[in-house]
Q: What sequence folds into this?
């Protein structure tokens, strides 16, 4: 027997005889690979695949760029950045009369308690731009009384009117009818560029400007609670400003600790991957021993409870006797319940043990492949940098989609609609002209109705198709996101396939395998990657449509339609998971053989079906190791961050003084998980690629001198057993 360390292995013929693994059944799923003396790994001489899909993909990208340019020309993101008054004018926009008036002021904040606020997303009161918020209580009637002796009150009050008046000689009813001034102003502070009442708590009582009761200018006495309820309709988090400042202070204090935590998470992830070649088997068997032990304890506990209930009153009743009960504890008083639990756990324990016994060899192969994956990453370390490139591409796609969506949403001219405080006007939600609204019959038919700015739109072809363009924007975004993931998977598959099919490792590994694989994927297989990502994008788009319809029609649905929609959601969720699994393996085949997407997907599917038991075992073992790795990295960093930010390590290091320790703690934990996920996604793709190559190796070769295996010696030892 000729063994080449780390390379191709020769076996005597007796050892290479493979047991029939359902060969007759396997032939239904394609013929196994045959020996090819010229095959040395990823095919070098290949041609472009799925050219038609490549052309369509490029056309969509060009259309996407054109859409962005058109949206950039017509859109105005200042409509999002600046608040808009009732006339559709921006507050604080340079070069306009409101340049120095950057804050939005509501005439009658109490009208914001109307139900129409939640329906129309607009408060049915006049809104104007002001330079500063009111700082004191003052009513229009008070200014009239004080005008003869003190004109400064009217001068101060008039700045909160639509236009300044020389004197307050008009009646309150006339002012309210013409909607020129508010009936009263209250001490307020700017928040999110809007004037909100200056609430405070005095001896446990809510106050506004140190007052609990005040006049609303229309003859009614109001309290701070009513004003707070009105303000909450506009913004339910009036305290968010102080909260935001505290969060900012915490981030400013701990940013370097957060960065250090993410760096440590990166190092731990890298160390974990390297050590997997030594610890994968130990981790798996310790975990499975724990599972067997936990189920065994459950069986003992059920038997103990079953035995303790013997002789107790009513414990002999059956579940059928007591029927359906909302109190779950009633079932726990029955011996039959604990007996059923014990039987179920016994069956589960037997299944786990039998699975470990009869599939132990396949489990050992899976563990060996996990160790091999760690070795492959050590020989091709540049693959650990690739998640940074994926993150960069994803960031570009997300930013472009978000900016385009904002520009599309802010395209058009101001559209005004009628909003009534009571919400019972028959003309409500109809378009109107604010310049002439007060002279129309509608204002008389609906007292108190306002013609208020609603959104931006228009009657041109472009404006009519903005919703369609938003859908196109979302669809291409999903397509590009899936393409970025597909490109990464195909690139990593090509790099790791080069490692597996090297005769002598690492001597025969091609130079720069990652960059070579990336170049091949871009040059030859953009069309195939676009094809696979298009299928996923269509499924995800349909799922989004289902979610949208569910939210829009939730109140009008009956039980049957809800059940059907739930079934559709479940089916498309399963379909998306299945397509993602098949796509990953199809990209491995594309990276190795350079065939088109459909043929690669078919070959990958047939190969996996011919080895379905190995696939199931490998998939679960890999999932366990990846989840455990992410939990270990995230848990270690989380514990260290908790001890640091709660100042429980004064002997080793002095922690920062924080307002909310959970803010940087959650940031570190989530960031550590994302860092670990990025590293382990490379490892998962490595395992998938090595597994496909391993199955191909078993079909192509038999371990003889003429057809030696490419697998490493660790895998070979398990195969010999």
A:
């Amino acid at each position: 027997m000729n063994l080449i360390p780390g390379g191709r292995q020769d076996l005597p013929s007796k050892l290479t005889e493979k047991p029939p693994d359902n060969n007759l059944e396997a032939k239904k799923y394609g013929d196994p690979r045959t020996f090819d003396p010229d095959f040395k790994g990823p095919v070098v001489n290949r041609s472009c695949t799925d050219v038609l899909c490549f052309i369509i993909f490029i056309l969509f990208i060009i259309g996407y760029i054109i859409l962005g340019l058109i949206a950039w020309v017509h859109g105005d993101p200042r409509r999002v950045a600046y608040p808009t008054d009732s006339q559709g004018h921006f507050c604080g926009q340079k070069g306009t009369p409101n340049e120095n008036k950057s804050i939005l002021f509501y005439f009658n904040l109490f009208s914001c308690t109307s139900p129409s606020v939640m329906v129309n997303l607009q408060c049915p009161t006049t809104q104007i731009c002001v330079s500063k918020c009111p700082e004191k209580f003052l009513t229009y009637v008070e200014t009239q009384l004080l005008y003869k002796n003190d004109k400064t009150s009217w001068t101060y009050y008039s700045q909160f009117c639509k236009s300044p008046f020389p004197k307050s000689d008009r009646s309150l009813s006339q002012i309210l009818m013409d909607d020129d001034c508010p009936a009263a102003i209250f001490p307020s502070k700017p928040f999110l560029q809007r004037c909100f009442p200056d609430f405070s708590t005095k001896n446990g009582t809510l106050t506004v400007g140190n007052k609990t009761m005040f006049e609303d200018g229309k003859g009614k006495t109001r309290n701070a609670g009513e004003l707070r309820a009105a303000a909450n309709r506009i913004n339910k988090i009036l305290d968010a400003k102080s909260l935001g400042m505290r969060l900012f202070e915490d981030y400013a204090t701990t940013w370097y600790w957060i960065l250090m935590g993410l760096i440590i998470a990166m190092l731990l992830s890298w160390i974990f991957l390297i050590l997997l070649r030594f610890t994968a088997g130990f981790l798996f068997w310790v975990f499975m021993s724990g599972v067997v032990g936990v189920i065994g304890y459950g069986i003992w506990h059920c038997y103990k409870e079953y035995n303790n209930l013997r002789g107790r009153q009513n414990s002999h009743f059956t579940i059928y006797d007591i029927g359906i009960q909302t109190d779950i504890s009633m079932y726990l008083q029955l011996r039959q319940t604990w007996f059923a639990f014990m039987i179920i756990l016994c069956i589960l324990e037997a299944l786990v043990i039998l699975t470990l016994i009869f599939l132990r060899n396949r489990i050992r192969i899976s563990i060996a492949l996990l160790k091999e994956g760690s070795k492959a990453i050590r020989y091709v370390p540049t693959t650990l940098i690739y998640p940074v490139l994926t993150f960069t591409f994803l960031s570009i796609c997300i930013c472009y989609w978000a900016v385009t969506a904002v520009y599309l949403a802010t395209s058009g001219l101001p559209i005004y609609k009628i909003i009534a405080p009571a919400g019972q006007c028959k003309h409500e939600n109809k378009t109107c002209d604010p310049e002439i609204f007060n002279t129309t019959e509608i204002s008389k038919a609906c007292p108190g109705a306002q013609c208020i700015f609603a959104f931006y739109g228009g009657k041109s072809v472009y404006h009519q198709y903005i919703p369609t363009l938003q859908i196109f924007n979302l669809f291409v975004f999903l397509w590009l996101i899936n393409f970025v993931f597909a490109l990464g998977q195909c690139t990593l598959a090509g790099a790791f396939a080069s490692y597996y099919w090297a005769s002598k490792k690492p001597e025969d590994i091609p130079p720069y395998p990652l960059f070579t694989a990336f170049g091949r994927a871009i040059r030859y297989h953009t069309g195939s990657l676009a094809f696979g990502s298009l299928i996923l994008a269509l499924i995800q788009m349909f799922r989004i449509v289902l979610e949208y319809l569910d939210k829009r029609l939730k109140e009008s649905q009956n039980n049957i339609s809800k059940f059907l929609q739930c079934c559709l959601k479940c089916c498309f969720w399963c379909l998306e998971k299945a397509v993602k699994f098949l796509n990953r393996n199809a990209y491995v085949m594309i990276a190795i053989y350079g065939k088109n997407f459909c043929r690669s997907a078919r070959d990958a599917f047939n190969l996996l079906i011919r080895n379905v038991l190995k696939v199931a075992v490998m998939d679960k073992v890999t999932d366990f190791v990846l989840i455990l790795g992410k939990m270990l990295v995230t848990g270690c960093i989380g514990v260290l961050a908790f001890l640091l930010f709660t100042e429980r390590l004064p002997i080793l290091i002095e922690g920062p003084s924080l307002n909310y320790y959970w803010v940087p703690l959650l940031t570190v934990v989530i960031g550590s998980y994302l860092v670990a996920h990025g590293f382990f996604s490379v490892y998962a793709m490595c395992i998938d690629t090595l597994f496909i190559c391993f199955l191909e190796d078993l079909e192509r070769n038999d371990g003889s001198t003429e057809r030696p295996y490419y697998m490493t010696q660790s895998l070979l030892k398990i195969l010999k057993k």
